[in-house]
Amino acid sequence: MTPLRKAYLVAAESAERLIAHPAVVAAWTAPSALEGFTVGGLAAHLAVQVRFVPRTLTDPPPPGEVVTLDGHYTRAAWVGADLDDETNVQIRRGGEQSAAEGPGAVAAGTAGAVEELRTLLAQAPADRLVHPPAGPWALLLDDFLVTRMMEIAVHSDDLAYSVGIPTPDLPPEVLGPVLGLLSRLAVRRHGQAAVLRGLTRAERAPASIVAF
């Protein structure tokens, strides 16, 4: 298994633990920190970053154009979309529908997916292509897993903040690829100087260097 795949499993296990946290379960139907999501809906959206991957790997490799990791984000419809854009509405709707299964079912489904992935990721060849949910193109599996690790990192913070618990710390093998991706996307959006200043020069930092 590649180091990236091992890192993804670490991130998936962290998400699994957070989704089953008593504070998340207790606040399941309460509003989350993200507008339009309940805590349960947000937890279910986090769970999808794990539960979707086995389904992707059981499908045959997709035909069509293969894009790079960064190229994926130039095409994804949700990037830069308004909160009420249909793409984002569908994302929230899907989370809330999954949350209706209840916290126990969402947690169990996530745990089951993690176990399934231990075998699937070890067996997948290095050049395995997968079809991301964002569009009709193909990504290398390891690039796709970086997109899932980023989602897990960001939404774990959203979920933990929503219920007043510390955001889970992720190890360097997870955080490194995530921060690398987000930094490149931030540079693409704001320019190199803005990101450098945002990270190092408070006196002339821009108001925002967010990646999306």
Write up what this structure looks like.
- The chain has helices at 3-19, 22-26, 39-58, 69-75, 86-99, 103-123, 141-163, 172-190, 192-200, and strands at 129-130, 139-140.
- The chain is an all-alpha fold and 212 residues long.
- The protein has a single domain (3-168), classed as dinb family like domain (Four Helix Bundle (Hemerythrin (Met), subunit A)).
- It is globular and about 50 Å long.
* Strand percent estimate: under 5%
Q: Could you say which structural class the secondary elements and strand pairing correspond to?
A: mainly alpha
Rg over alpha carbons: 17 Å
The helix/strand order is HHHHHHEEHHH
- Using the 3D structure, state the CATH architecture: Up-down Bundle
CATH-defined superfamily: dinb family like domain
Task: Report the end-to-end length measured between terminal Cα atoms.
Answer: 31 Å
Q: For the residues shown, what is the average pLDDT?
A: 94
Total helical segments: 9
Number of domains: 1
CATH topology annotation: Four Helix Bundle (Hemerythrin (Met), subunit A)
pLDDT < 50 runs, ≥5 residues: none
Q: Can you give the helix content as a percent range?
A: 55-70%
Tell me, what's the shape? Answer: globular
